[in-house]
Write a structure and sequence with these properties.
The protein is 20% helix and 35% strand. It has one domain: Pnp Oxidase, Chain A (Roll), CATH 2.30.110.10. It is an alpha+beta fold. Strands 1, 2, 3, 4, 5, 6, 7, 8 and 9 form a nine-stranded antiparallel sheet that branches. It has three helices and nine strands; from the N terminus they run E-H-E-E-E-E-H-E-E-H-E-E. The chain starts with a strand and ends in a 5-residue tail after the last strand. The chain is globular. A hairpin with a 6-residue loop joins strand 6 and strand 7.
């Protein structure tokens, strides 16, 4: 994936400094570390009738995407099947990284196996390939379209938005 394009987000009335002031624009590698190190994540989806839905999950950052699994009847999956747009946030409310992206259910066994290996490395052995059978459970990959981060120690000088190239 090509490096995402960083800029200062438009945040009127918050006293946000210019991109070269304060901490300046955050480095994408810093954001990736926050995403990788987060133990818990929040997944935001939309019900078919437009109501928001937020739920915690365990996930991994793998191949420049957020991956998680869930049951085929889970509300988040039913929402994503209707509208694949999703927001994923790390667990840290003071220095969050928030990703907007597109979710897709992965059915490819080598990719699912890679997700299982990454999950086991992060959380310990909890599931086996039978659990990740696409006929029983869903493995979801969220490809970022944009991301936002801010550091609590520099509220006015750190907000950064990244846009991911569409052809990446």
């Amino acid at each position: 994936m090509a490096e995402p394009i960083a800029s200062r987000p438009y945040m009127p009335d918050y006293g946000i400094l210019g991109p070269d002031e304060g901490t300046g624009l955050l480095d994408w590698r810093w954001a990736e570390l926050q995403i990788t190190d987060s133990r818990n994540y929040w997944i935001g989806t939309v019900w078919p009738d437009g109501r928001p839905h937020l739920t915690p999950v365990w996930a991994v950052w793998l191949d420049e995407a957020v991956w998680f699994s869930c049951g085929l009847r889970a509300r988040k999956l039913r929402n994503l099947r209707a509208t694949p747009y999703v927001t994923v946030s790390t667990q840290d409310p003071e220095s969050p990284v928030v990703i907007d992206g597109l979710a897709e259910v992965i059915r490819d066994f080598p990719a699912i196996s890679g997700f299982l290996d990454a999950s086991t490395a992060k959380y310990g052995p909890m599931m086996d390939m039978d659990f990740l059978d696409p006929e029983t459970n869903a493995t979801v990959k969220v490809t970022p379209t944009s991301a936002f981060a801010i550091r609590h120690d520099d509220f006015a000088g750190s907000p950064t938005r990244w846009i991911f190239p569409l052809d990446a």
